[in-house]
Prior knowledge:
Elements: E1 18-20, E2 30-31, H1 36-41, E3 46-52, E4 55-62, E5 65-71, E6 77-79, H2 82-85, E7 101-108, H3 111-128, H4 139-147, H5 152-157, E8 161-169, H6 179-188, E9 196-199, H7 204-212, E10 222-229, H8 232-237, E11 248-251, E12 258-269, E13 275-286, E14 289-295, H9 299-305, E15 312-318, E16 322-328, E17 349-353, E18 356-360, H10 367-378, H11 390-398, H12 415-419, H13 426-439, E19 441-443, H14 444-450, H15 458-467, H16 472-477, H17 480-484, H18 491-500, H19 504-514, E20 518-520, E21 535-538, H20 548-557, E22 561-563, E23 572-574, H21 583-591, E24 594-596, H22 598-609
Parallel strand pairs: 2-11, 19-20, 21-22, 21-23, 23-24
Antiparallel strand pairs: 1-6, 3-9, 3-10, 4-5, 4-7, 7-8, 10-11, 12-13, 12-15, 13-14, 15-16, 17-18
Amino acid sequence: ADSPTVHVGYEAVEGLPKETHERPMLSLDKTKDRFALTDWLGGHEGLLSWKLDGLTVVLTYEGGTLQKAVTRGNGEVGEVITDNARVFKNLPLRIPCKEPIVLRGEAVIRYSDFNEINAELEAEAARTGDFSDVGYKNPRNLCSGSVRQLNNQITAKRRVRFYAFSLVQAGTLSFDNSRQRQMEFLREQGFETVEYVRVTPDNVADKVGEFEARIAQNDIPSDGLVLTLDDIAYGESLGTTAKFPRNSIAFKWADEIRETTLTEVEWSASRTGLINPVAIFEPVELEGTTVRRASVHNISIVKALKLGIGDRITVYKANMIIPQIAENLTGSGSLAIPVECPVCGQPTMIRQDNDTEVLVCPNPDCAAKKIKSFSLFVSRSAMNIDGLSEMTLEKLIAAGLIHTFADIYHLDAHRDVIEEMEGFGKKSCDRLLEAIEKSRETTLPRVLCAVGIPGIGISGARILCSHFGDDLAKIKEAEIEELSGVEGIGPVLAQNVYAYFRESGTAEPFDALIGELHIARAAVEDKPQILAGKTFVITGKVNHFANRDALKALIVSLGGKAAGSVSAKTDYLINNDVTSNSSKNKKARELGIAILSEEDFLAMIGERNG
């Protein structure tokens, strides 16, 4: 009964519930240079594995039994697919380990199974004579749709398999500080794991070549490789950027390039006023999918490519995901730049943004700016308000019901108007207003993501809130230098955050919004602010903390500040290698700044507490 090949009790559900991941699931930084992996390892050993091309799923087992399965979703919020996971072909429903464990892996459909499924559909079409919709495009799309079915009997027929690639939590179990030992543990529990090899800086490039030679024979869809540091503690001490963990990196194969004809350029207005060109071309197959569109980003790229309708162009997928134009083989340069905004019809202007020319709509009342801003605000990563689609937002804006974010929380006063709108009635209006009320209970990272500070998505918002202890007042009052010192927030983002809270056009509406919300703060111990007024910089490996972010959090909780670079305003540099000649150590010595080991720092706060 415990066998992964035995599954009974199919179940259908009305909808897939959403759930927030306990740990954000960040994407990986990428490289196409296999020799760059040698430098990345930096003298350490790692595990090199296939990067599977399916749908990432998080599994939770308690008491040896599968309790929950959640898709990656947007990295913060996923969909609960537990019933569907129970019918994956090779997934154990029970495991020997009784400790609570959480693991991640990829749900995939093998090429051999994919081909058999299509062959069955073709045979059925031949029997019925209906060839109108025969065959699926690629295994990845089929897997994504299969995993998210509302009836797991359909999932079971799609032959989905699960390959574990990471152990996230394992109770009190120890693995000798080794990722490889974790993978061996997962196999001992009955999971199939992603294929991997142990590598060193001396052989990693050769091992990449060995994987590359086997691509054509690999039955499991893959879009590259993943290199992960074997040393768990060291990898975690490196922390993360706003987008990527630093203990892993993805290697991507050379781009697949196709030639096609440019048929149109669509000009798309955004919430920031930028009007972005999007190339539309005759469909081509790239990396297993049909591609018809590619962003051209700005006027400078349009001019550099010398685009014109009818030109022969080559296209590829950047990082095997984002369609891009590689080259213009014709180079006619005949494309006309719009002189009017495609949304409001007001005159456009070309603006110099650093060294780049961009097309903008200067009209502050352009509907595109409002709609796109509100779309971000209500999105799943932000305030997560179900029922407020772009179409609905257009209607509410056109009716004059919302002008600012805070207005959304007063829509109940316009119930009679909303119920009379096309597509609405009493029930749909009730559902919308309930979703809005539910969104009042939120977190500070969601709010900072929602309001559209340029460059600050949910990952950057979480980094800010973690650094400042979920204290909105501190974030609003922070100077550019302090914001720049937050690891993962560079000078450009720091300037954006600083400006947002000081410009009346954004600061005042933000304050009005905050008055409508109930923001849950992370529990903070009432600690004496013994480090108030002191600025610390942390570098190197830490021994007494999970990572440098944990040490920073302690400093902030005691009233201190944690910066990213040594300057005249720095009071202490924390580096366990006190005598090293690193650039930060040298700068600290030049400025007469004390260099502390972790033990020195702990003794400092211990003495003051005593």
